[in-house]
Structures are given as structure tokens and as C-alpha cells.
User: Fold this.
Amino acid sequence: MEIAVCDDNKLFLEEIRAQLQTLPIVENSFMFSDLDAFLFSIDGGKSYDAVLMDIEWHSKAAGMDAAGELYKLCPETKIIYVTGHVDCFSQQIFLHRANLSGYLTKPVNTELLRANLQKIADTLPFREQPSLILRRQGTLVSVPLREIYFIESKRHIIHVHAAGKTIAAYDRLENIMGSLPIGFYQCHKSFIVNMSHINNFLSNGIMLKNGGRVPVSRARYAETRKAYFKYMGQSF
Assistant:
């Protein structure tokens, strides 16, 4: 599942990110401390299976307004409201048009979070995993995009480093980049990184969640960091 979390408390975002990382049904999570940035991601074509939406933003119930805007743009996306003020909003949440699926209170109980997300996952239609198609020795090879950590070019040969395997094929890196969706970024003339697998930035490269490293050229370092933070919600 692709999950977005919207909350103006960055500490809470860190806490909920850690909880989501323990749930196998969550493939990727995106943190937003700015509602305009969240809605901008929707306008830009990003879609989420579920959104954890804090109700109160700077003493206003802006989360319900954002949920209404989300419903106009992506009516199929499920909303789970999150609040630390139980008595303030429990009678209001049904007055705003939204694809409401759940209601959680802070601090969020991990088991209740899992149960709410599992309920949503059970209603999702089967979706074939989007893949990168490579031609290798006259045959087509399909590599699921979510399994790709990074792609490297060496002497007109593309090396796709994916979970448990590396696949080589003759192609040009610019051709590969042109076929990839948002979430992949060319951080070096010879490397493309899958930003959903980035753990942190080093002084001269990227550390991946699997422990691997990807170089970043000096000329592209600032733009790569900017692209990553925008991809992950412009908050981190």
C-alpha cells in the first residue's frame, strides 16, 4: 500500500513513519507537514491508497477541508482521521464529504493502525505490479519497479540492481530514465536511484535502506536532495 501521512507535528510524523515501517502491507509512506504540498502531490499525479489525516492544523480543523479537496481529486482514496482532541471533532467528521474509513486517536496504537490499513487493503482491487521491461538476449525481462534499488550504466550496458538480483541489458540510461515514473531520479550521469529506497544522504552519495551506496555527482547533489525531499513530502 502507498500511504500518505499529513500532520503539522514533525515529531508525530517521525513516530508514525517508524510504526508504518513495521507493517508488511505498507510498501511506501510519504510524510507531509504542509497541506498545500500534499495536495500539490495529488495534482502532480501521485496517488495513495490511504491517507492518515490530522484534523487540527494550527488550531483550525483544516484536515477535514483537505480531505474534502482530496475527495474531489481522488474520490477512491481512503481517509483515516487522526486527532489528539477526541472530544472536539467526533461529531463533525461526518459533516464533511470524504471517503472516510477510520478514526484514530493520538498516540496511535500500532495494532489499531494495522487493523485500519488492513481493512482498506482488503478492499483494494488486484493490481499488477508496475515493471521495467528490458530486452535481454532477444527476450523480454520484467523487473517490478518497487524491487529496483538503483540502475547503473557501464559502457552501454544497463545494470538493474534489484532485490536479490542484478540484471544486465544493452540500452542507454536516458532511454531507461524516460520510461520510469516519478520516484526515480538520475543522481549521476551513470546512475538512477529509486528514491523510495533511500535511507539517508552521505557527503558524496546516497545510503540505501539495504545498505548499498549510490554515488551522486557534485553538480547534481543539491538537486537530488531537493527532489528527494519533495518526493517524500517536502518535510524531511
The two ends are 21 Å apart (CA to CA). The helical segments are 10-20, 35-43, 62-73, 86-89, 110-121, 173-178, 221-231.
